[in-house]
User: Fold this.
Amino acid sequence: MTMPVTQCLLKLHEDHHNLEDYQGGVPRWCSGCGDNAILAAVQRLCRDEDLSPERTVFVSGIGCSSRFPHYMKTYGFHGIHGRAFPVAEGIKMARPDLTVFVNTGDGDCCSIGAGHWIHAIRYNMNMTVMLHDNHVYGLTKKQASPTSPIGFKSNTTPRGSYLNALNPLTVTLGVQNVSFVAQAVDWVPEVLYDIISAAYHHRGFSFVRIIQRCPEFLPKMFESWLADPQKTLLLTHANGLTLTPELSRTYKNQLAHDPSNIDRAREIASGEDPIPVGILYRNPEVPCYEDVRHAGQMRTPEHIRVGLEAELDRFTVWPKNAEPAQRAV
Amino acid sequence: MDMAATFHEQRVFFSTSRRQGEGVEAIEGLGLRPALFAGYRDLSLLRHDFPLVLVAASREAITVRSLSGIVDEVLLEVAPRGIEGERLRKHALALEREIRARVAAGDIGLLSELWTAAAERVSAHDDETAKEVLRYTAAALKLDGEVVGCDLAMPAKFLAHLWEAAYAAKARAFRQAVDTLVVRLSDILRAAFIHSAAGQQPGALRASVGGAHQNMFDFDAMSRLVGRRAPKDELSPSRRRRIEGALAVLRGQRFFPDPKASSSPDAIVAFEFQFEDCASAVEAFRARLAALVETVRAMAIAELEADGRYIEADHDPFFESFGDHTLTPDDLALFPDSLVCIPPDRNASPENANLIEMLSSGLPVKVLVETRDLLEESSVGAGHFAFGVRSVRLAMTAMGLGGVFVVQTPSSNLLCLRAPIARGLDHRGPALFSVYSGAADPAASIAQYLTAAAAIESRAFPPFSYDPLAGDNLAARFSLENCPQPEADWPVESFEYADEQWQRVTERVAFTFADFVLCDRRHAAHFARVGRARWNARMRPVAEWLELPEKELTECIPYLWAIDAGDVLHRVLVDVRLIGAVRRCRTLWHRLREQGGVHNSHAEQLLAREKAAWEAEKQRPIEELKAAVTPAAGSPAQSAAGEEKAGAVAAMATTEAADVPAHSPDEAWIETARCPSCNECQLINDRMFLYNENKQAYLGDLKTGTYRQLVEAAESCQVAIIHPGKPFNPNEPGLEELMERAKAFQ
Assistant:
């Protein structure tokens, strides 16, 4: 196997990074928050894939989870509420060479940002999306989010919420052009890492819903799942997750699921107890929007000059017998 | 009739090629052709691969289509089920037939032009409905391109068309890479200018805001204001020189110039990459090598500069000594490959004498060697047919060079082989396409397509492909492409005819190399017709005769079935010289198909050995067999493998057991692998609870904290993975209560 000269030279002074190289500010999440687990997994992924910090971008909206870019020593964009996806899409469109991650919360993505979410799935741009789903608005001190369970008492639903929770997985799986859907939980870090890694390697819109604990406002929410490994259903497959023997011993509740089967994925995604964890759906054949829409011609200064001159020539009053067409003849 | 005399005459012809007596007649002027050609008198009436359409500017993978395929596609789209659809189909097929006939007659042009012309001719003999129907089908025609028949010019056109598609794909990728670098380097220069003193002059600032707002600002004041920041030239002279140099090379490269700028007066003229001889291709490569090296160098510098990773101390010496020796095959693969289409009459010309050397040097060149004559007399004059010696040997020699992609095929098979041919054009290295395009001197007006197809059937020019990078073994690299009945020496087909009593007779007739030679009028002397009255049982079809035992060969005479212009069946004797050529052709076919994995002698020997061993095993007494078979229920190898596997499983079990650390209830420990990095424990004591390289907690020095902190950390851990064990300092206050709290985590 040979390698172009350029690659050889780039490798000559290739930077290798360790975990600390990706550590931005000290996280200000509550102690015990599941966001820490996601941060650790993502930093580990960046190190293992040796992602150049200057070629990596984390984009977020508003919420606890959306503080994520502050804690990564890469490029980042802490955007406005619900608008993480359009910002990320713009970045990807302008700089397809960058690695783009989106960190969004259940309120940010599934409520105010739902319109952008649906279309981002349809656009299938190459980015890794992590939905930090703690079932509550935590940053604003406990209001019900779209994924809060029915009966959940909060500052906005003092008598308990009236509606069934929205299932982000089934919604995503129902949108045209969906290409990657997975679910992880923050209390199984090994699987969390594997799933984020698989999402990163998928070319397209990789949507990972991460169910996470909020020890401040929903401290008891996942207690039974933490106590009983049987309540976590691990999805395994040769094209999906493969578990280590240690993990298999702890989490014995496993199901073989082929990620190419979307009907089965929808069926599994609608289950809530046990919580399905793994890659639900993956289709590498779905085209990415940035590829479909790519102009095929970079706008180099020469290209712009030629285009402008052609445009201006249309309105130029030429001296007699000096029009371009006649000159060419 | 004296049958003994008849046989004697036939025998004399077989042995000496002399026609002695009345029973052995010359075939000159009879227009004989192989009997299996009976159904292929007028090819324009038959739907087959030809003519082809070289689809223009197609972004699809398939850039060459058959006319029949296109018509089928149109019909699938526009023809409804039922009688209406049938009418439409009938007219469309008539139109297809008309186009095919016109192309065979020498018409050339685009499909759309031929379609329109054919539609007018077809509808001229029909009512208005036909005209309307054909107009309707024309509207459904979604593609266009040059239509080519199976003539002598076709192979070069076909290959050039596929090469252009490969060139266009390469051009897109190359322009994308170069344009990206140009934009990034231009951005660096622009940013440097904006930050420099020159960029902060009033004039520069005025130009930067555009004409509409130029009167809104005081640019002198603005210049003074922004100038306070101590403007500086961020680019060192050497870096600026490097970037500008790289930009100049990238903008001026002639391998894939900007197509949009081609209309401007100072447009860069692209290099030409299509040649008619090897010498020109080599010369052009040499002449352009410096430009190629310069472009690769500029791309490497640009990439490093754009990334801000150019280190002068390390890279300057490297680029100073940059030359053609630095290039890798991957670098060469970025640039266009040369296409050399050698016309058949120049195969042996001095310009092409270094063909093999050029291929073996690994130059990125794709060569089409076209052969029109497989039956030429050898230059050494050995007195036997030197069929395809030059071209067949060429393909086999090229295979032996190691890195050359080789395709050998007659022109009739080109459409079927478009995928391997396209792979050959994409191959990173040289490729050879050896194509046989039809008889030099056909007998009985046999169509060129038919002669080329006969070369496949008769094993005279078997199609194959060899991809040196396809795998580690010959099975992956070599493939017999579309060879009919590869298991057999000769393909055998059913042949039906009416006998003297007008009864239908069906025979199985093999198509041999002798049948192929019958198509060429130059070799009529090797055949002799035998009148029906003199047919006898000692005359045997050539394929059958070749299989006779040695001692019977002299008792029989080989013949072919042939038909004349009136489709009357004849038996044609074959002389001994031609039989020698047939044998040689068969031998070469055996060798070739063995490479393709058919009747592989090594495999057959192994099979025979294993079979013999198995038979011997079977002969043993049943008790002994039982005793031998019971322990492993298979071969000794399987048994060994089973034991090995069992050992591995046992080892794995041991490993698994070892993976689980045995912790006594008295010991403090953390299930590190399950740690979700939530920071709870570190907030209690970040010296006692440490993170590993994956940011997961483990216990550090217990003496840096207290047992109380250990228990509190266990209680606050969200996933309950901290096990405090027993106190390590007996003097710590409140131990009794702490131990009680710790019990839940033992």
User: Anything to note?
Assistant: Residues 3-41+488-602 of chain B form one domain. Confidence is low (pLDDT under 50) at residues 632-660 of chain B. DSSP finds 26 helices and 22 strands in chain B. Chain B touches chain A through 53 residues (CB under 8 Å).
